[in-house]
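<backbone_tokenisation>
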Amino acid sequence: MALWDKLMGELVDIVEWLDDTNDTLAYRFERYQNEIKYGAKLVVREGQVAVFINEGKLADVFKPGTHELTTQNLPILSTLRGWKFGFNSPFKAEVYFCSTRKFTDLKWGTPGPAMMRDKDFGVVRATAFGLYAIRVKDAGTFVKDLVGTDNRFTLAEVSENLRGKIGLRIKEVMPELGIPVLDLEAKVTELGNRLNELEASRRLAERARVLRAHGPVRAERRDRIRIH
């Protein structure tokens, strides 16, 4: 029993994430063979959620607070394999902490100018650039669809993809809006609203896609237009 008690004492009894970065969206809690003591304390701080994965499947999502990991608040424990030693034995699960704070002042821009036909100037070239912000709104889907088995998923891994998609979509849509060139700069807010309306209708037609623009990460834009 002494050896078993020693091993049990070495198992983690506090599961938490102290984020000392400013660019981490998700962090996988590191533990040898992912073993966690039954009855351990899960500490989820404000601006975080904790996602439990068992055998590659989403088990549960915990909001901010201190939680005791038992079968009462984590029913999946009662179905986990390897309970030879009863409910005092450790269990295996992957724990991902996701940051739910808003990441702001991220830059986007159109990949080259968009060709537009204007009634006063004929064919003109216009570029758009600005800032956007993102926030994880569905941590379970985020971990399942984007993070995968990455032990640390950073802002850089998603911002490059979003920046390109935002810029490309705006470049495609700008010529469709029909706003006169001279009014574009003054009507940035209207342009943004109309873009959102167009995107909303396009998303309805794309709901069957696995990854969607309104999926696990929400993006917000602040736009500017430049005319060449």
Notes: The domain at 103-227 is CATH 3.30.479 (Tetrahydropterin Synthase; Chain A). The chain has two domains: 2-99, 103-227. Helices lie at 2-10, 139-147, 155-177, 181-184, 188-204.
